[in-house]
Automatic annotation (TrEMBL):
Protein name: CRISPR-associated endonuclease Cas2
Alphabetical list of Gene3D superfamilies matching this protein: 3.30.70.240
Keywords, comma-separated and alphabetical: Antiviral defense, Endonuclease, Hydrolase, Magnesium, Metal-binding, Nuclease
InterPro entries in alphabetical order: CRISPR_associated_Cas2 (IPR021127), PaaX-like_central (IPR048846)
Amino acid sequence: MHKTEFQEFLEQTAGLLDDMVLGRLSIRSLYYPRSTYYYKLRKFKKQGLLKPQNRKKYPNTLILTDKGRELIKKSKAAVKRTDGLSTIVLFDIPEEKRKARNILRRYLLRNGYIQIQKSAFLGQIRFSDELRELAEELKIITDLKIISGRIDQI
């Protein structure tokens, strides 16, 4: 099952929370043009996936509806490896593709990989078509290397 547009939107904009916590949120942090971002918010409100929070202090705050929560639960969970092997994701993405690099890092962390170096992630998760599609969409497929193998302790 592929992720819906709603699930993808939530994943990609969830990284904004990191920026807000660190106090560096700016419009440049958005993964979408501002107009697209607001269009998607309106669209998901119409679909009943988001609704305004009824608070005087934060009148423009949106929250997930039960329908939105259910849709998120239906998302495909990462497939854990049962063969005793691990997957290593290595990448060398140029600076001019910084946004793509950050999206990839957030994707890997949210899908159960652990960061062992700035551009190296390890997980007991199978390489998925979803990761391949993301890399192709971000135009970083040639900058990405996937290795499967057994990790032994010394």
